[in-house]
Amino acid sequence: MGAIERVLITKEELNKQVKEMASRISKDYEGKELVIIGVLKGGFIFLADLAREITIPVDLDFMSVSSYGNSSKSSGVVKIIKDVDTNIDGKHVLIVEDIVDTGLTLNHLVELLKTRGPLSVKICAALDKPSRRKVDVQVDYKGIEIPDEFVVGYGLDYCGKYRNIPEVCILKKDVYLK
Ligand code: XMP
Ligand code: MG
Fold it and tell me: Which stretches make up the Phosphoribosyltransferase domain (predicted)?
């Protein structure tokens, strides 16, 4: 695709990361009631991969939040577009997200979900961009660290596009700077 500068993380690297995380999650939550909450839309591909490598029974649900609108800069405003249907009272919750950038989205989600009586709320993210963090959010299952570049693919989009690219790619700057 012409808008792509280069591949940053290959399918093989993503696959290895997913398997390691799923194995840790399966061990950590063995014998516990776990609700996995995928954050739409960006988290859908990672969650689909991760869920199929998890070897314990889990409940799966989704939330849809928006923090970016159509630009590549975080507004800091988190809008809940779709909430979960699952009652998380007395259960362990694992939020599955595509990327932790400023941390604002996950910080907001954790605080919101904690008000609903879960036994624990933890975070699993495929990618981590630590250089841009604005709030200190604890990511319990942290994925691959990436530099401060705007990336697309593996669920991540620019203006709704490129989510279907199987690798994580760096977008050409002139695509979003114009
Ligand atoms: P915060 O800043 O709240 O952001 O941690 C989390 C959300 O921002 C989006 N995001 C990106 N999306 N390429 C994208 O396509 C990126 O490089 C990028 N960085 C952040 C993403 O939706 C994430 O859930
Ligand atoms: Mg997202």
Answer: 14-158
